[in-house]
Design a protein that fits this description.
12 strands; single chain; mainly alpha; two-stranded antiparallel sheet; flat
């Protein structure tokens, strides 16, 4: 052993070897370099309070950032096993899913209960940047930074991480009498509150969303009778005859067969999305077409604008298969003009021997997602081509 290595080992032994992990003396060695104020606050993590820096950190070398003994999530869950089991259920907050506990919590000390890094509202808005800080009219819990009044910070039974169904949550503060008064004495059951109201805030009174349905702006009586809350699809189609024509097409949306189906996708009063959709287009469509969403999510190769369903499909009905805006080839070459100059025979007179349908782009490509480059339905020319050309085997 060289003299320099021996000297280093002697120094390390003198510095750390005689210190018992978890004692104040051991912590004081850490504080020689790491500012002690970082470990002070109203709420102090138990290992820190006990001087057990080595409970989480290796003082010499480690595989993980911050000299952590394990990954961040593994380390936290080693002391919090109940939370580890609970956080695997339902819809999971992204930082929790990644095991990134320190995105919200300070592992050493904090001035806030739960070792939250800052006040809760600032912590949430650090990631949720699209939420405006201020509205002309702001919902009281949001104004006070009380995100946890409605949301669970870790996981929940619904995708918005709400503590209960939205309408149930609204009913804890907004009672039936208040609802009737707020809706001009029309029947107003606690149902679909979020289709008209923004739960955080709005620039319109009563937290009404930004895009207004014209009849709603003019007054409720255009569609409603005071003694009757529910309206039929006929009321909608009276003003939207073009949609009626689409819904009578050869291939129509299945939703039209389920009563007042307009409300499956649209808000009748107000919304934040174009066409008064209840959410972003892809969210509305995949709320029913979950198999398509799963394929898209799990496939390494998928079409870029898959979130814009209406670029290719008519949402109400069409004369074409799959409610496409044209036959498969016509829809594709609107964007893929260069690929429109086909070398393979294609068109209505060339039939797929497996299905009897005309060959089109989707015979070989699946825009919703595949395991192969160029969205091919099979790997390689041989496997792809012999799907049809069986005689060449």
């Amino acid at each position: 052993m060289s003299r320099s290595i021996a000297v280093r080992l002697l120094y390390i032994t003198a510095l750390f070897g005689l210190l018992v992990p978890g004692t104040v003396s051991a912590a004081n060695v850490c504080f020689k370099c790491h500012q002690q104020r970082l470990f002070q606050g109203k709420v102090v993590h138990k290992p820190v309070a006990a001087g057990k820096c080595s409970a989480c950190h290796n003082p010499h070398v480690a595989r993980f950032k911050g000299l952590l003994r394990l990954t961040e999530g593994q380390l936290c869950y080693s002391c919090h096993p109940k939370q580890a089991a609970s956080f695997k259920q339902g819809f999971i907050h992204e930082p929790v899913h990644r095991g990134n506990c320190t995105a919200c919590h300070d592992p050493h000390a904090s001035g806030v209960k739960g070792l939250v890094r800052k006040d809760l509202a600032r912590d949430c808005l650090k990631c949720h940047k699209k939420l405006p800080r201020k509205f002309k009219y702001t919902h009281e819990p949001y104004a006070k930074g009380q995100c946890l009044a409605c949301h669970s910070p870790h996981n929940a039974g619904n995708p918005l991480l709400l503590k209960a169904a939205a309408d149930t949550l609204c009913g804890t503060c907004h009672k039936a009498r208040d609802l009737r008064q707020g809706h001009r004495n029309y029947p107003a059951p606690l149902k679909d509150c979020l289709t008209c109201h923004n739960p955080h805030g709005s620039n319109r009174p009563a937290l009404v969303r930004n895009v207004l349905h014209k009849p709603y702006a003019q007054g409720c009586s255009s569609c409603h009778k005071p003694d009757k809350a529910k309206v039929s699809m006929a009321v909608c189609l009276k003003c939207h005859p073009d949609v009626k024509g689409q819904m009578l097409a050869t291939h129509s949306h299945l939703a039209r067969h389920k009563g007042n189906s307009c409300l499956n996708c649209h808000s009748p009063h107000a919304g934040d999305e174009k066409s008064l959709l209840k959410g972003r287009e892809a969210q509305v469509c995949t709320s029913c077409h979950q198999d398509t969403m799963k394929k898209f999510r799990d496939s390494p190769y998928k079409h870029n604008n898959i979130n814009k369903c209406s670029d290719c499909h008519e949402p109400h009905g069409s004369k074409k298969l799959a409610m496409l805006k044209g036959n498969g080839t016509e829809v594709c070459v609107r964007c893929h003009k260069d690929q429109g100059r086909f070398t393979h025979p294609i068109g209505p007179k060339i039939l797929d021997p497996r299905t009897g349908h005309p060959l089109s782009c989707v015979t070989c490509h699946n825009p919703m997602g595949t395991d192969y480059k160029y969205h091919l339905v099979a790997n390689g020319k041989e496997k792809l081509c012999i799907l049809c050309h069986r005689t060449y085997l």
